[in-house]
Amino acid sequence: MKGIVPCLTAILAAVALAGCAGPAAARATPATTTSVNPGGTMIPAPPTSPGAGVTPSATTQPTATATATSGLRCTVPELSASLGSDQGQASAGHRGQIFILSNTSGRTCYLYGHPGMDILDAKGQSLHAKVVWNGPRPALVRLAPGGKASFAAEWADPGVYPQGCPTGSSIEITPPNAYRHLTMSFAMPRCPDGVQAGAVVAGTGGGVS
To answer: Is the dihedral angle over the CA atoms 65, 177, 105, 198 positive or is it negative?
Structure first.
């Protein structure tokens, strides 16, 4: 009997502990799953379905992006840049210009998205222009050999600033999804507001109505 009593006591204690732990475990909140990006920043795992405030991407956008960033995209050596129509006073205190990208290769290629831009001084040094993307929503542009695409750019008139703005001698245009750029002569001021660049569209109108 002396050996049985300690065993029963131990069993009853274990049952009591399990009964206390049960409700607490039921109230426990599952931990949020996270992943670590190459930079080491903790990023919450994406939800499995769109929730409040989350807008799902258009079903055609991934296809367009994949096409433009694959081997079908227009590369810098296949393109040339030229001036389109001068938009003059595009809006109050702003000037505008349309720029044209032409397919000079012998194959059909695609563009999708906004261009990059920079302003260069007379020595070809960057003036570190700020570029703001606006304009029409990006759409996949198919460029056959000799085909043309375009985008509209707008910037503040230097007269708006009492101190004026330095004016470059040329500009760099980086096609969408590219790292190299095209350079062309064009006097563009570098003002604090920066340059507003629209998405690349088919044709030479720059998406301006």
So the answer is: positive
With a CB cutoff of 8 Å and minimum separation 6, the contacts of 187 are: 167, 168, 169
- Cα–Cα dist 76/65, whole Å: 17
SS3 206: coil
User: What DSSP assignment string belongs to 108-156?
Assistant: -EEE-SPPEEEEE-TTS-B----EEEESSPP--EEE-TT-EEEEEEEEE
Copy the structure tokens of residue 76: 């810098």
Say how many residues make up the chain: 209
Q: What is the pLDDT of residue 41?
A: 27
Q: Within 13 Å, how many C-alpha atoms sit on residue 153's CB side? A: 28
Q: What digits encode the pLDDT tens for the residues 14-66?
A: 444 444 444 444 344 333 333 332 333 222 323 333 333 322 323 234 466 66
In DSSP terms, 79 is beta-bridged to 103
Cα torsion 102, 106, 111, 116: sign: negative
pTM comes to: 0.67
- Nearest Cα neighbor of 134 from 195, 64, 43, 66 is 195
